[in-house]
Design a protein that fits this description.
- By secondary structure, the protein is α+β, with helices and mostly antiparallel strands.
- It has three domains: 44 residues, no CATH class; 59 residues, no CATH class; 50 residues.
- Helix content is 46%, strand content 12%.
- A four-stranded antiparallel beta sheet has the order 2-1-4-3, with no helix packed on it.
- The longest helix is centred in the C-terminal third of the chain and has 43 residues.
- The radius of gyration is 26 Å and the shape is flat.
- It starts with a helix and ends in a 6-residue tail after the last helix.
- About 7% of the residues have low confidence.
- GO terms for molecular function: transmembrane receptor protein tyrosine kinase activator activity.
- Keywords: Disulfide bond, Signal.
- InterPro entries: LDL_receptor-like_sf, LDLR_class-A_CS, LDrepeatLR_classA_rpt.
- One of its GO terms (cellular component) is terminal bouton.
């Protein structure tokens, strides 16, 4: 049953995506797509962990930690890729959006705006699937390393306390903690 549901969900998702990506705007608003969208929403209601995203009207209109970027005169390691420099006086780490807006302005956003389901970069590069998957993986990886280091520090501290207590016990000094 799960396999059939997964196949049907995949099929309707592909049909829905292929029809919504059509260049003809009139076709997008046709009734043909309305039933597909309703069916897709109905299927997704049965799956509690899945969320239907619409990137239309998802631009973040209020970004407090946005900064303008600028092209530096150098390229990235001779690979002819322009380097975008963000404002270095900002208190937060900024990440450059790779493409400019329609006026040719470059932007830098705070890391907290990556993968937040709102397009903060002009072309939505901060919400790309592969980038978000890597961002989530990197956060998980670094969080696990941080937790491991904290656990090691706690273990070493506890071992040190145990050794001190054992030495004090042999000397006849008793401390209660």
């Amino acid at each position: 049953m799960r396999v059939l549901r997964a196949i049907l969900t995949t099929y309707f998702l592909l049909v829905f995506l292929s029809s919504t990506c059509a260049k003809n705007r009139a076709r997008f608003k046709s009734k043909k797509n309305t039933w597909r969208l309703k069916l897709l929403r109905k299927i997704l209601q049965q799956s509690p962990g899945v969320e239907l995203l619409s990137l239309r009207n998802k631009h973040n209109t209020h970004i407090p930690n946005i900064s303008s970027g600028s092209l530096s005169g150098k390229d990235s390691n001779g690979k002819h890729v322009p380097v975008i420099q963000c404002d270095e006086t900002s208190a937060v780490d900024l990440i450059a959006c790779p493409s400019p807006n329609n006026k040719g302005q470059l932007f830098c956003i705070s890391e907290e705006f990556l993968c937040d389901k709102k397009m903060d970069c002009p072309n939505g590069e901060d919400e790309e699937l592969v980038s978000c998957m890597f961002h989530q993986w990197a956060n998980t990886f670094f969080n696990s390393i941080s937790k491991s280091l904290t656990d090691i520090k706690t273990s070493v501290y506890n071992l040190k306390q145990s050794l001190e207590n054992a030495q004090n016990y042999q000397k006849g000094i008793y401390t209660y903690r």
